[in-house]
Amino acid sequence: MAEGVKIAARNQKAFHEYFIDEKFEAGIELTGTEVKSIRLGTLSLKEAWCQIKDGQLFIRQMHIAPYEQGNIFNKDPLRPRRLLMHKREIMRLYGKVKQDGYALIPLSVYFRGSLVKVEVALARGKKALRQARRRRKERRQAPDRPRNERTVILWKIPL
Fold first, then answer.
1. d(Cα 149, Cα 137) in Å, to the nearest integer?
2. pTM summary value
């Protein structure tokens, strides 16, 4: 990131669960109280994901806590927010997501001057990681597995 950039939040979970292929910068449509809340650092990207709907890019499940002095101007903390990118870029991303099995994941939210920007990544899921987790879970839930006991292997020695 360049000078004059203040990072408000990072999505560390994304780097563990996805291979990042490309990164894009997008603006975000916010209200005044949301910007003030972001300046205080009260946002979370842990469960956030991006979706292209009707030719527009949205970020979903990004939690921005209500601003304390915001009273009636506060919005829903989990509302979908529109990301601002060129139409050509959005259509290119839409083609990749539909065709190649990519996902759009927000990596970070930061201030460039007085503007709030979102870094969005075109990412592929780590399937091997998911499969390993599934196998571990199945092993833990197996009914024939002895609980809290060491497994002893006995070898038959030919006489």
1. 18
2. 0.73
